[in-house]
């Protein structure tokens, strides 16, 4: 806008400048008024004059030149002749017609053009103001997306169900001849980073049909009614391009449960959701339009959104198992030069609980570490260092600890590690370090052998033993307590509370759950908890939590007291080496037992 206006202003200034140049008298001509000119004629000071158009130019007897405008003075020529002044009359210049047109109509044309520019910009501004209700969906062509199902690994069941939809779009009669109907909506559900959006990109790459992509937050604006208008506009565009796919990422931004907003029934988000519900399965059908949405919060979605006819099918995109992690690692290492000693299966086994995004980050960190060391290929040590960085945080070697703090940290971490080693059924120790990492002064890292999906009461109690082993070691070996156990105590208390209130693992309170959760919109999690038990029960819950935690603490203290020599040896080894692997700790324990025997 401003560039075009600036150009027109420059053109106008140039026109005015040229116009003035044609009308400015030469610098050696003095412009005088007509009465002065007559006085000079009468006094005999004028030598000659030239009459042309509306101007009289001439020369005084002293040699100076002058210029003045003519007026209707009939006796002027007679007076000039009486004074013997040389008179020269010249016809007016015959300029080309376009020059006359330019000077006559140029300023008017310029003003009209400026007016047109302003009106056009105002019209465009008006269109922008009226475009609030237009959907911001991106139409993705099959050539624009490079992601295919070959790039999606670790979620084979989800891929199978989505491939069925792609096949329906390519060959609808294969399903319709048996009376089957393809789902109108597919909801991808899973934790963050498991590949829901990546799966949608692969659908766009494989479908071969128009693919509209939009985020849930794109619907909601500060203006009431805009979101609903955008929903209607999105489906109008989709109907024109049917068969097609609409992908809505993070649908929980607009599809949350109705009736909980502070704005009541006229809340902007609720209007948007109502429009979405009607468009998905209302009075008018949307044949050939498949809606795919992704969320990691299916629990907050409105029930009307999840009923058959809208989102008919929910596809769970879970955290990958060990085979899935291996396939994901193969995908992300395709374009990375790998050393011969690299064992992707070992890395997959050593990364339980990692999502696809976590594994992609792990591979990237390993490649960056190898590049930092000027290596030609990425080897196993790079992946181990990257795994430690992801799991435990970045080493803070610049943080200088005093000898006392190092000793405290060494005994604390040795307590964790030794309780874990001497308690059967706990997760194996991966690495113990007293080098500050992240916000911790030391780290004891455990990695499960297999993927776990359920946890027994015995396993949870042993986990509590390990969590409290650090504080127990401080009390036994150092005879004082430090703030280093703060996070351990918090995790232990939270775990014990869940055992009592959520998982029914308290013998005293029985198989009951306590604390009904109803997480409504705009309400904090703690505020939204409804206390559905008595004060007496609350006291009993507190007593049970305390009993579980203190029992685990006493068990950890007994293990460390019975094996104090191992605790002391492990702490001294950590002070010397700073970091120990799980097999190093096993070797130290075996050597100590041999010496003791």
Automatic annotation (TrEMBL):
GO MF annotation: an example: ATP hydrolysis activity
Cofactor(s) the record lists: Zn(2+)
Documented EC number(s): 3.4.24.-
Gene3D superfamilies attached to this UniProt entry: 1.10.8.60, 3.30.720.210, P-loop containing nucleotide triphosphate hydrolases (3.40.50.300), Peptidase M41 (1.20.58.760)
GO BP, one annotated term: protein catabolic process
Keyword Cell division: no
Cofactor notes: Binds 1 zinc ion per subunit.
InterPro entries membership: AAA+_ATPase, AAA_lid_3, ATPase_AAA_core, ATPase_AAA_CS, FtsH, P-loop_NTPase, Pept_M41_FtsH_extracell, Peptidase_M41
Family the entry assigns: In the C-terminal section; belongs to the peptidase M41 family. Belongs to the AAA ATPase family.
Protein name: ATP-dependent zinc metalloprotease FtsH
